[in-house]
Amino acid sequence: MTLKLGYIALSLLMTVILMAFAFKAMRQDDSKLFKKWVVILLGWHLYIFGLSLTGFIATLDFPPRFVLLTILPAFIFIGWSVSKIKGANWLNHIPPHWLIFYQIFRIGIETLFVFSVYQGILHSNVTLHGYNYDMVYAATALLIGWQVWRGNLKLGLIWNYLGLAVIAFIIFLFQTTIYFPEMYGSIEVFPVDFFTYPYILVAAFLMPSAVFVHVVSIIQLRQKLSQNKSS
User: Where are the transmembrane segments (predicted)?
Assistant: First the structure.
C-alpha cells in the first residue's frame, strides 16, 4: 500500500507543478487557455483511472494495449501541442530553469522502481539493477538548471535533446524487456501488475509529462536564442 501511495503522491505532485507552471504562464495573457489546460490534465487522469478499472490494459499480449491506449495518445497530444506552443507569448512568463528543474522528479520514479522490484511488481532489467540509469541523468538537472539560470541557454538546449534520447532508450528498454527478454539473457516474465493502477501512471502520465516539458523547454530556449541573435 505504501508503494502505491508513492506512485500516486508523485503523480499528484507533478500534476500540481504543471498546473502552477500553466498558471504562471497563462494567467496574464490567456486565462481561458489555462482553464482548458486544467481540464485536459484532470481529464487525462480520469481517463487513466477509468481505463485501469476495466483491466483491459493489464496484459502482456501483443500488440501492447497500454502503449496504444496511453502512451500513443499522449504523444499525439504532445505533437499537436508543438504547433500551438511555438511563438506563444505565455512561454516568456516561465523562467527557463524551472522547466529544467522539473525533470528532477525522475529520481523519484527510479527510487520507486527499486522498491517495486523488491515487491515483485517490476522487472529488475528496467531499473538501476539493470540498464536504466535515468536517475543519473535526472540528477544533472540541478547543475544544468543553474547554468540556464546564469544564461547558458545552449547547454540547456543540448541537455533537453539528450533527455529525449534517454527517454527513447528507456521506452525501448521496457518494450524489449517485456516482449524480447532473451535479448538480455533473462527468462523472467515481466510482472503484469505494473500495468495496473497506480503503476500505470508511469507510462501514461509521468513519462509523457517529462517528454512534454522537454519539448516545451526546447521551444522556449530556441525562441530565446533566436531573440538574442536578432537583438
Answer: 6-25, 37-60, 66-85, 97-118, 130-149, 161-180, 200-221
Secondary structure class of 196 (helix, strand, coil): coil
Question: How far apart, in Å, are the Cα atoms of 65 and each of 51, 109, 199, 200?
Answer: 11, 22, 15, 12
Residues 30, 25: Cα–Cα separation, whole Å:
9
Cβ-based burial of 214 (10 A; exposed 0-12, middle 13-18, buried ≥19): buried
Number of domains in the chain: 1
> What letter represents residue 13's amino acid?
L
pTM metric for this prediction? 0.92
And the C-alpha cell for 181? 527478454
Three-class SS state of 56: coil
Q: At which residue does the C-alpha cell 516568456 appear?
A: 92
Q: What is the DSSP letter of 204?
A: I
Instruction: Tell me which residue range forms the domain holding 32.
Output: 1-230
User: What residues contact residue 127 under an 8 Å CB cut-off, 6+ apart?
Assistant: 110, 113, 114, 116, 117
User: Rounded to an integer, what is the distance from CA 131 to the centroid of its chain?
Assistant: 18
The cell for 224 is 530565446
What single-letter DSSP state applies at residue 27?
T
d(CA 31, CA 205): 24
pLDDT in tens, 40-73: 899 999 999 999 999 899 888 888 898 899 999 9
- CA dist 225 and 213 (Å) reads 18
Alpha-carbon gap, residue 145 to 80, rounded angstroms = 27
